[in-house]
Amino acid sequence: MSEQSETFIAKTVIKAADLEHRRKINFNIGKYNAVVPKGKEQFANVNLARERAKNVKWRAIETLDKQLEEFELNFTKRGGKVIWAEDSKQAIDEILKICEEKNCKSLVKSKSMVTEEIHLNDALEKNGIESVETDLGEYIQQLDGEPPYHIVTPAMHKSKEDVARLFNQKLGTPVTLTPTELTQVARNILREKYVQAEIGVTGANFIISDIGGIAITENEGNARLSCAFPKTHIVVVGIEKMIPSITDLGLFWPLLSTFGTGQKITVYNSIVTGPRQENETDGPEEMYVILLDNGRTNILQNPKQRESLYCIRCGACLNACPIYKNIGGHAYGATYSGPIGSVITPHLQGMEEFKHLSFASSLCGNCTEVCAVKINLHELLLENRLESVEEGMVTFTEKMAWKVWKIASLKRGLMNMGSGNLKNKVVSRMFKGWNKKRADLEFSQKTFNQLWKERYKK
């Protein structure tokens, strides 16, 4: 068992028994479930929209090399600079290099899961650069010293009382402040940071190849401010975020907002195609786009798992997953949690360390049912399990136990042999880990085959 697996099990034991945690999650996801059906009403045929989106992503991923080159060509025509990063170290080194060139002491950052993936804030802090999260949920998590809990709503596991106590401890505000007042406190602090920062860092929801631009969707306007106020704008984005054309946004923006938050469309939707031009009055003087691989080509070269790169990070699969709702986002021990995280993390960070995530699933298929781009997530979880076994990541004892189980299952005489009590003892010895966190196995005294023969002796 890997160290990550042991940590995962320890965390899940605690969280699964935390009823207050479960209450908060069910409350917040319940609000999400109430509004999503309303958002879906904007589509004449929501399943057809999902199918079309999947086909667009299929084309983008199958021709990803050409799409990325076209993006670079079009983006650099307008004065933008593209940096290719194979891994997180290369991305961090390039960002630190830019910060050094700009003599950066302060940096504002909008919500971006890919910067969480490369641990950008930690790297900047070690180099004496202040990095401030400007998304309210991310700001709350940064104050608390925690990573995001959810792909879309980083502080989903916190109640308004939790946030009020946190602000009281960290900012000295009264513990009685309402959510509106807490938001105003954060806004007043963050508005000063935009003016002071030399560099703004954002992610991108989509890379658009035909215009050489990035698309950002948000509800607070902080990403737009992070793009425009500082003199330098750095975008860090995974290469899989590609879509071929700006016209595709007419499909993807409503899908992302509906499946992400239940909205018809998010409040702020921006397309950025480069630094400020001669005839423009605002925007950064310089703009960099860092195209990050960091294991994505491992998924790309896997014909079956390639489908997971279609993900638009709406978070719907997390909200639908009974496992996620039980153990929460932090238990996964990875940047991406829930079903999509369980699918991609073993390929991004190593199958041996993270194969356990694909086994921590009920395989109910609800994740596939709600996916905005119809990724067969439950099937990909099974593929991960198969790959881990084929790569030999299984103990000799487990292999032998399943071999005996297979032999017994295929022979009716063996299945009928012995009483239920005897079977309980044999199986409990073979699968010792089963009843550590589950009820004891209880076989019936007679098999269905035996009962059938007794009833119909003829």
Describe the protein.
- By secondary structure, the chain is an alpha/beta fold.
- The chain has three domains: about 1-40 and about 305-395, Fumarate Reductase Iron-sulfur Protein, Chain B, domain 2, CATH 1.10.1060; about 60-295, Rossmann fold (3-Layer(aba) Sandwich); about 395-455, no CATH class.
- Helices cover about 55% and strands about 10% of the residues.
- It is built from 24 helices and ten strands.
- It has helices spanning about 5-15, 20-40, 45-60, 65-75, 90-100, 115, 120-125, 135-145, 160-170, 180-195, 220-230, 250-260, 295-300, 315-320, 320-325, 340-350, 350-355, 355-360, 365-370, 375-390, 395-410, 410-415, 420-430, 450-455; strands at about 80-85, 105-110, 130-135, 200, 205-210, 215-220, 230-240, 240-245, 270, 285-290.
- Strands 1-10-7-4-2-3 form a six-stranded parallel beta sheet, sandwiched between helices. Strands 8-5-6-9 form a four-stranded mixed beta sheet, sandwiched between helices.
- A hairpin with a 4-residue loop joins strand 5 and strand 6 (about 215-220).
- The longest helix has 22 residues, at about 20-40.
- The protein is globular, with a radius of gyration of 25 Å.
- The model has no long low-confidence stretch (mean pLDDT about 95).
